Amino acid sequence: MKRQYTNIRLVVYWFVTLGWSGLVLALLLRPRARSLTQDRSFDTFINTFFSYDFRVYNYFEGSVHVLLFVILTALWNLVLSRYVAQPLALRLTIIIALLVAFGTEIGQFFVNRGSLLFDLIANVLGISLTCMWIIRNNK
Predict the structure, then answer these.
(1) What pLDDT sits at residue 124?
(2) CA–CA separation, 24 vs 108, rounded Å?
């Protein structure tokens, strides 16, 4: 009976983790209603990515990015630590979370949505905060 309970719990962990990952991808790759730019060149991507103004940046959106990636990182670590040792699980978690963070920011250019360096920094901050918490609590 205990073995069956453990298997059900693992299925739930995977379901929640993959569901959250899908939600993060859907939210961050959702196209904007209005076109930001008709020019889809690499130069435009670079110029918009590195051009941000702290006076007009939406800090609420940045804090949402941090929260999304805190939860994403924690869930992936929870799942992966069931299969491999914690140090390896944390490394794999960091790789997955960074792939999602960089992939969504680059992918936003292709779905007609602005991609900002500040958003990427917020994503990495969420990953870093969670990793520091995991390392601190596993000593």
Answers:
(1) 96
(2) 13
In-domain check, residue 36: no
- 129: which 2 tokens? 């905060």
Q: What is the domain range of residue 123?
A: 2-31+42-137
Q: How many residues does the structure list for the chain? A: 139
- What CA–CA distance (Å, rounded) separates 19 from 74? 14
Residue located via tokens 């929870």? 78
Whole-prediction pTM:
0.81
The residue behind tokens 């999304």 is 68
Phi, psi dihedrals of residue 94, rounded to the nearest 5°? -60, -45
CB 20 within 8 A of CB 75: yes
